[in-house]
Write a structure and sequence with these properties.
With about 240 residues, the chain is α/β, with parallel strands linked by helices. The chain is built from six helices and seven strands.
């Protein structure tokens, strides 16, 4: 597994910038919800989405109203309003992440790392507890709501806090500048969190010190209209 202290000093074989995207996905949803939504998604994938103003990257800085350090689990305490410097309440985070609420999956990516993040709506709390209905029982697809801001933030946190594999570490190039940068970020993160050394390098370490999510932007030129770029800033 990736080293927990010093990186290798041999000559790098690859550079991170030239790596092809990895075909790994992390999706924040229940399996039943995904199966129930397949037919519905096939009809709406061609309709471009528009990100809610709270999350939409805007201006030259590509920043939204929301600031969120992806190191921490998203909650009403960790997701901040960039303008008021106060935390967003839970009901705000449960609002749809798109202007026109959608239950169709969104794809998130960044030039800072090679992984693709897929976001789907989470089933409502208690959806699986009901056991008796008059007439036809509603399907899970009918019970779930649109993708929320919280769904997107949870998917990002889950994906980026996943430990990397040995193959992913070696693909950076032994002793390369990028590998050393990731090692430095790993050490800084563990020091900041007061632990976590035993878990090794995680995907979040690809971001260096820029772990603050500041917005989403629908990527132009992508046919499905549902691929968004992530904007990060220094914490």
């Amino acid at each position: 597994m990736p080293p927990r202290t010093d990186s290798s000093s041999s000559v790098p074989r690859h550079s991170f910038e030239m790596r092809p995207p990895l075909k790994q996905h992390h999706t924040w949803h229940g399996d039943d919800a995904e199966r129930g939504e397949k037919s519905k998604r096939s009809n709406v994938h061609s309709v471009p989405v528009e990100i809610t103003p709270l999350m939409a990257a805007s201006g030259r800085s590509k920043k939204s109203y929301i600031e969120y350090d992806v190191t921490f689990l998203p909650s009403a305490r960790s997701v901040m309003n960039r303008h008021t410097r106060s935390a967003f309440p839970e009901q705000t985070l449960l609002q749809p992440v798109t202007r026109q609420p959608t239950t169709s999956r969104l794809t998130l990516r960044s030039h800072k790392f090679p992984w693709i993040i897929t976001v789907s709506p989470s089933p409502p709390k208690g959806a699986a507890k009901a056991a008796f209905y008059i007439g036809s029982a509603p399907t899970l697809a009918q019970q779930i709501g649109p993708i929320s801001i919280l769904d997107a933030l949870q998917a990002i946190h889950l994906s980026l806090n996943t430990p990397i594999t040995q193959k992913e570490w070696e693909s950076l190039g032994a002793g390369s500048k990028t590998q050393k940068k990731v090692t430095k970020a790993y050490r800084a993160r563990c020091t900041k969190m007061g632990g976590g050394w035993e878990s090794g390098v995680r995907r979040i370490d690809w971001l260096g010190s820029k772990t603050k999510l500041v917005g989403l932007e629908v990527e132009s030129g992508v046919a499905d209209g549902r691929t968004c770029k992530l904007s990060f800033a220094r914490v």
